[in-house]
Amino acid sequence: MTKRRLFPASLQTFLIGADPPPTTPRRLAAARLAGLLCALYLTYAAATYLDLKSGLPTILCWPLGLLLGAPFALAFTHPLLAWRVAFVTALLGGIPVQVHQHTPFSWHPALLAAQFVTLIAVAARHRLAVAAWAWLSVAVLVTVSFFPADRIPLMEIVTVLMSIGYLTHRFTLARRRVATPSSAPSSLATTATR
């Protein structure tokens, strides 16, 4: 008798799975530095944007800015983990801003662009089913945090960008398959002679 899973494997990976290791470790230091610099800028941008536009007290704007910007320190090395944290913080940060209804969306535009980059990285490094769960989480976030007139265009943008990330992933896999057959004939020849 086979064991039944409570959730599909793709949902389990999306919720608690690990990111695959980077394919080029020599770029890891640069990716970490880029993520850290991005997180620092986004923290400042989010906090000042919330302070100027949201109507929230300044004492709440800076911690919310930190929560919104910090996940992107992991965006280039662990994009799925970065997306999980960014989703939760954007949801928690977006609700109080929307209650005040002072902005058409809850974050600085640079945060939105950084979320797009993180989603492209998720689609480029994970299977299609995992990327589909990420897309669904974006739909929830957009529904909660944006005005109705902005929802469909934003989801179209997310769909196109994640498709580009996924196609990049497929292209990379195909290129690796083409590059590896040179070792396959020699292994077949040794098994045929045995």
The overall pLDDT, averaged over residues, is 83
Q: Judging from the principal axes of the Cα atoms, what is the shape?
A: globular
Radius of gyration, in angstroms, nearest whole number:
20 Å
Helix content: over 70%
Number of strands: 0
Class based on secondary structure composition and strand pairing: mainly alpha
Structural overview:
This protein is an all-alpha fold. Residues 186-194 have low confidence and may be disordered. It contains eight helices and no strands. It has one domain (29-181). Keywords: Membrane, Transmembrane, Transmembrane helix. The chain crosses the membrane at residues 33-50, 56-74, 81-99, 105-123, 130-148, 154-173.
Keywords:
75% helix; single chain; disordered C terminus; 0% strand; membrane; 194 residues
Short recap of the structure:
The chain is mostly helical. The chain has helices at residues 9-16, 28-53, 58-69, 79-100, 109-125, 128-145, 148-179, 184-193. α2 (28-53) packs antiparallel against α3 and α4 (79-100) runs parallel beside α6 (128-145).
Give the SSE map.
Layout: H1 9-16, H2 28-53, H3 58-69, H4 79-100, H5 109-125, H6 128-145, H7 148-179, H8 184-193
